[in-house]
Amino acid sequence: MNNIILIVAAVAVVIVLAVIFLKKSKNKAQETAPLDENSGDPELFALGLNPVSDKPIMYALTTCQHCKNTRKFFEEQKLDVIIIYLDDYSGNKRAELMEKVRTYNPRGTFPVVIVPGGKVVVGFRKQLLKEALIDDAGRTA
Question: 42-135 has which fold?
Answer without folding.
Answer: Glutaredoxin (3.40.30)
